[in-house]
């Protein structure tokens, strides 16, 4: 659906989901002076995928490895309004990949000189072959992710890292994924810099990626951001309220208690497949397209230890199939308050993430045991350190998978909804991993609020859809 060039009659705006996108939308409507809106959240507390929990032992855990960085001035402004400078801790990223018997700095492809000689030689040979190819030997249009990886990095790197790691994190073969989403999500490789490192030159001072430096709340985990934002919109926020059905013909939402709420515009920030399934009148073709969208489920296993926090690294990647988690985050390093009494001389905390196919049956006790043993086996936790706490959170919808037919499915589903005044936004509303960070979600929420209030074109989603709007690109 093309972006409106004229103001839409704001009317009553109902927002489903009080995660970063829904909260930002509500807060922007408040700021703009629009009063006829309502924010509904199914969970008992706001925050969505970015909320935090405190376990019975007093350890704080996020629902996955969130860090605070920004592409957008609106997100920066929001943080500045919600936190004083002293309430945010700032870190330089220190990240490594476990490979054989060693730790290789991230990004893996930029540190081949750290590999065992045989592995380094194979990876470098393949990179040099790729560097010497002709321009017309590049990627075919619409290449899948596996082809993209081989064309970018060569067989050596794919076999040693990219293949096993991406299969593990996505619970999907890269050959079944598109490559159009990659953008800033996968680091490039500079062959000259790689060769210079083999000759003893120091690596470039710059660090790749938007999260090379990041912030984190001093207390409360990532969820503290959204608790504070929710307090600003509390008067029109209803938690523990689940939407069961949407009827676009009469523009109503039916709630789990039987209450029917009218709307003029509906901003839906939950999973697009569920939204489509509960929307009356959706054609079979639209329902089938939504049913083709794929996502991962993630088990977050938080492990607290009676052992001091001594590791200075931020997070670590594990491509090995025998390690249950794909990433381990040094959570007590992020903020001392993530452990009981902020006592990092006594406690440490590691947050691990395990990617699963949806509907996987879990043995919780076994998974916790295996994660604990893997942390000890790889030297992150002293062998005999007492386990002070274990906490498991199952995140059913964790990441939208950019499958080969994702864009075709979205082109079938989203226009049908928007033509009926339903605007899917946020990580799982848009189903676009490439704009799935917290700052993206906030930007989408602010953008749709402005569009519904006075017709201001949406910037971020316009760019993601390949549309340059009158408002420019952020």
Structure description:
The protein has 474 residues and is an alpha/beta fold. The chain has three domains: 13-51 and 72-79 and 221-292 and 403-464, FAD/NAD(P)-binding domain, CATH 3.50.50.60; 97-198, protoporphyrinogen ix oxidase, domain 3; 295-401, Polyamine Oxidase, Chain A, domain 2, CATH 3.90.660. Helix content is 32%, strand content 20%. The chain is built from 14 helices and 19 strands. The model is unreliable at 1-7 and 467-474 (pLDDT under 50).
Topology at a glance:
Layout: E1 13-16, H1 20-32, E2 37-40, E3 52-54, E4 60-62, H2 73-82, E5 88-92, E6 95-99, E7 102-105, H3 117-131, H4 145-170, H5 191-198, E8 213-217, H6 223-232, E9 237-238, E10 243-247, E11 252-255, E12 260-262, E13 265-268, H7 272-277, H8 284-291, E14 294-305, E15 315-317, E16 327-330, H9 331-334, E17 348-356, H10 364-377, E18 387-401, H11 406-418, E19 422-424, H12 427-430, H13 438-454, H14 460-464
Parallel strand pairs: 1-2, 1-13, 2-9, 6-15, 13-19
Antiparallel strand pairs: 3-4, 5-8, 6-7, 10-11, 11-12, 14-17, 14-18, 15-16, 16-17
């Amino acid at each position: 659906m093309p972006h409106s060039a004229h103001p839409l009659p704001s009317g009553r705006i109902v927002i489903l989901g009080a995660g970063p996108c829904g909260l930002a939308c509500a807060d922007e409507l408040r700021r703009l002076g629009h009063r006829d809106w309502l924010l509904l959240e199914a969970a008992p507390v706001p925050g969505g995928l970015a909320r935090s929990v405190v376990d019975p032992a007093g350890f704080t855990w996020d629902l996955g490895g969130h860090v605070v960085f920004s592409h957008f001035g609106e997100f920066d402004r929001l943080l500045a309004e919600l936190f004083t400078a002293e309430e945010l801790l700032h870190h330089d990223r220190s990240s490594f990949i476990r490979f054989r018997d060693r730790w290789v700095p991230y990004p893996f492809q930029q540190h081949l000189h750290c590999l065992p000689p045989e592995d380094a030689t194979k990876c470098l040979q393949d990179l040099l072959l790729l560097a010497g190819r002709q321009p017309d030997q590049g990627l075919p249009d619409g290449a899948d992710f596996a082809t993209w990886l081989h064309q970018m990095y060569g067989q050596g790197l794919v076999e040693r890292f990219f293949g096993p790691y991406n299969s593990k994190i996505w619970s999907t073969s890269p050959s079944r994924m598109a490559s159009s989403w990659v953008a800033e999500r996968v680091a490039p490789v500079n062959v000259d810099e790689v060769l210079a490192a083999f000759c003893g030159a120091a690596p470039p001072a710059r660090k790749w990626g938007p999260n090379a430096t990041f912030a984190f709340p001093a207390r409360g985990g990532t969820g503290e951001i959204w608790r504070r934002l929710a307090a600003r919109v509390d008067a029109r926020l209803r938690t523990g309220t689940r939407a069961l059905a949407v009827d676009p013909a009469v523009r109503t939402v039916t709630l789990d208690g039987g209450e029917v709420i009218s709307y003029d515009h509906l901003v839906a920030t939950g999973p697009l497949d569920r939204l489509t399934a509960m929307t009356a009148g959706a054609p079979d073709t639209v329902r089938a397209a939504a049913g083709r969208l794929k996502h991962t489920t993630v088990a977050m296993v938080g492990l607290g230890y009676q052992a001091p926090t001594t590791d200075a690294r931020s997070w670590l990647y594990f491509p090995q199939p025998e390690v249950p988690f794909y990433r381990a985050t040094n959570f007590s390093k992020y903020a001392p308050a993530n452990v009981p009494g902020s006592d990092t001389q006594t406690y440490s905390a590691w947050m691990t993430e395990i990617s699963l196919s949806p509907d996987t049956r879990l043995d919780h006790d076994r998974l916790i045991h295996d994660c604990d043993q893997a942390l000890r086996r790889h030297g992150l936790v002293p062998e005999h350190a007492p386990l002070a706490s274990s906490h498991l959170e199952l995140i059913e919808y964790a990441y939208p998978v950019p499958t080969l037919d994702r864009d075709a499915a979205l082109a079938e589903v989203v226009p049908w909804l928007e033509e009926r005044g339903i605007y899917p936004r946020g990580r799982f509303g848009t189903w676009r991993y490439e704009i799935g960070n917290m700052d993206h979600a906030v930007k989408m929420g602010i953008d749709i609020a402005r569009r519904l209030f006075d017709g201001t074109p949406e910037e971020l989603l316009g760019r993601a859809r390949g549309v340059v709007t009158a408002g420019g690109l952020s």
